[in-house]
Specification:
This protein is of the alpha/beta class and about 325 residues long. Strand 5, helix 3 and strand 6 form a beta-alpha-beta unit. The longest helix is centred in the middle third of the chain and has 24 residues. It starts with about 20 loop residues before the first strand and ends with a helix.
Length: about 325
């Protein structure tokens, strides 16, 4: 398998700034990746996308993470690598087969990138690898920092394996694990919650008091951009500074689409229908603190839940 390597074009056509970088992204066409790629290019960086299909554009490079194949020249040309690959955890149901897909899609992609970085003669300065708040599991009554221990359940095991795979790139590159919460933007989970509300199904999910660590799509991408130039290493929580519960989020969405917030979904029904996905995606209480990121100088743009939901539902 071969893939010719040429410098990727900068679609923005702007003169690159003095700190412009060549940035390689896996998962760049996804929900978060698309916004991140847009922000990076607007800032004057050159972005190259790893794709699993034959390349169609000058900014694409083919790879096969399931087979562990990646042209080493792609890594040698990168100043930074951002890994956002992984099958969606929002796709339901979580069958045994799909659970394996969730795990393997993350570990295979991360291992392929990290191993290539470790072998590179000229490794990138930083490897930012996706991670998730799922590491902590259900933790009612706790404020979760990067020092909080691993939780119990399927997702904590997945995230732990995912982060361990990324460490293969150290010490060749600075490795950062971006522990992301609930991302609110046009598409993704927001679209699903909007549909539920429009159909009249908005209401308490279980008790509704469980914390959902939300962040706007813009701030998610901006936070990743910040970490490119930061000195932080290891896990970094990426959640907004304004805590909210599941009830807060669902009520706000219902108000924005002019539907009632009234129909409760009992915890026993959610667990009965969705099993692990219900327990770990919907009912888990995760009050995730972004204090480490704040202390590092990052400033969130979107701190008001109502305004963020309004932007996310626009269009």
């Amino acid at each position: 398998m071969t893939d010719a390597v040429e410098p990727a074009a900068n679609p923005a056509g702007d003169t690159p700034p003095s700190d412009a970088r060549n940035i390689l992204i896996s998962g760049g066409s996804g929900f978060i990746g698309t916004e991140l790629t847009t922000q990076l290019r607007r800032a004057g960086h050159t972005v190259t996308l790893l794709v699993r299909h034959p390349t169609r554009n000058a900014d694409e490079r083919m790879w096969d993470p399931d087979a562990g194949w990646l042209n080493p020249e792609v890594i040698e040309r990168a100043d930074a690598v951002i890994n956002l690959s992984g099958a969606s955890i929002s796709k339901l149901p979580w069958t045994l087969s799909y659970k394996r897909t969730i795990l393997e899609s993350r570990v295979n992609a991360t291992t392929t990138l990290a191993a290539a970085i470790a072998k590179a003669k000229n490794p990138p300065a930083v490897f930012l690898s996706g991670s998730a708040v799922g590491y902590y599991g259900d933790r009612p009554g706790e404020v979760l920092t990067e020092q909080s221990g691993i939780g119990e359940g399927f997702l904590p095991k997945v995230v732990d394996a995912w982060e361990r795979a990324s460490r293969l790139a150290s010490p060749a590159s600075r490795v950062v694990n971006v522990r992301t919460g609930v991302v609110l933007g046009q598409g993704g989970l927001t679209g699903t919650l909007k549909l539920i509300a429009k159909l009249g199904g908005a209401g308490p999910l279980g008790s509704g008091t469980q914390h959902w660590p939300w962040i706007s799509l813009y701030d998610e991408a901006a936070g990743i951009r910040h970490l490119l130039s930061s000195e932080l290493e290891g896990p970094v929580n990426l959640a907004g500074p304004t805590p909210a519960t599941a009830a807060d989020v669902m009520r706000t969405i219902a108000e924005q689409v002019h539907r009632p917030y009234w129909l409760p979904a009992p915890a026993w029904a959610i667990k009965g229908i969705l099993a692990d996905a219900g327990r770990e995606l919907i009912l888990s209480d995760q009050n995730q603190s972004p204090q480490l990121l704040l202390d590092d100088g990052f400033v969130f743009r979107d701190v008001d839940l109502e305004q963020t939901v309004e932007k996310a539902l626009a269009g």
